[in-house]
Amino acid sequence: MTSITELIVPSVTVAGSRSWVPFTDLQAFFARALPVAQDALRSRGTVPAGAPIAVYFAATPDAVDVLAGFPVEPAAAHDETVQSVTLPAGRAVTAVHHGAYDDLGDTYDELHSWMTTHGLGEPGTMTEQYLVGPGSSSPPSEWQTVVTYYLPEDRVVAVPPAAAGAAG
């Protein structure tokens, strides 16, 4: 069972390569996009502010609009090689997936179930941050991926005042 947390996430700027990618080509896209983003940032003297991250904006049954890159300081935003997006601070639901990507779908299923149970509906933007993954010397059983669903503010269910007082 995956531990799922609802929290307020800070604003984050991500610089990388963005494209519509068929689901079957995601691994190859990441293998190309992450080194390009890292090299572009390095050439400007920019150090990533965290582990590699993918930002998912939209999807069709066959493909996804994704940016693969690194968190950066806002001033390091983009140039002709990389694009950037700033995700605003706000409410999110997050879970850490432990293990290879083959069963990452199980973590997504648990997140969707949790969100439905808590009346949160469909998420907005989604991210995967690869804390430990293919670029490390760790075996796949030790990989860690943080999956975050950003909650559109109009879909966040407020806690009734009586329940909030009882919890405090």
Oligomer: single chain
Q: Estimate the helix proportion, in percent.
A: 10-25%
**H/E series:** EEHEEEEHEEH
Name given to the CATH architecture = Alpha-Beta Barrel
Strand order of the largest sheet: 1-6-8-7-3-4-2-5
Uncertain parts? 154-168
Radius of gyration: 17 Å
* CATH third-tier fold name: Multidrug-efflux Transporter 1 Regulator Bmrr, Chain A
Structural class: alpha+beta
Distance between the termini: 27 Å
**Would you report the number of β strands?**
8
What would you give as the CATH superfamily?
Regulatory factor, effector binding domain
Q: What percentage of amino acids are in beta strands? A: 35-45%
Net shape: globular
Q: What is the typical, i.e. mean, pLDDT? A: 86
